[in-house]
Amino acid sequence: MVGDHEVECNPSFRLYLHTAAESHEIPAAIATYVLMIYFHMTRSDIEEELLHRFMAKEKSRVDEEKMGLLQEYSDNAAQLTDLETKMKNCLSSNVRLMQDLPAIKKLAELKKQYEETIER
């Protein structure tokens, strides 16, 4: 409405007004059509808001990374336990290691896998 006349406009039309006045009183007839945003912020308020937004985004990334690392640690620990068991079984067998080439090769391979897992 402009004065006594109703004016048609595009529904996506938006009008932004900016003022330095600190009056917070909006007439009730206008208040239903507008959104008042109070932009009076100090530098520390802005820093706090930006830090809050940054931390919200980083927290999710860090949590995902943490879960990935915990899963990798768990997998490595299980693999180490399995390799240790295989080594113990190979060493506790009745085979003479100095004369059994396949057993020596198997132990060398297990040792290599163990060292690779430790490095991760």
TrEMBL record:
GO annotation terms (biological process): microtubule-based movement
Domain Dynein heavy chain ATP-binding dynein motor region: from-to ranges: 2-116
Matching Pfam families: AAA_9 (PF12781)
MF terms in GO: dynein intermediate chain binding; dynein light intermediate chain binding
Superkingdom of the organism of origin: Eukaryota
Record's GO cellular component terms: dynein complex
InterPro entries: AAA_9 (IPR035706), DHC (IPR026983), P-loop_NTPase (IPR027417)
Gene3D superfamilies to which the protein is assigned, alphabetical: P-loop containing nucleotide triphosphate hydrolases
PANTHER family (UniProt xref): AAA+ ATPASE DOMAIN-CONTAINING PROTEIN, DYNEIN HEAVY CHAIN 1, AXONEMAL-LIKE PROTEIN
Descriptive protein name: Dynein heavy chain ATP-binding dynein motor region domain-containing protein
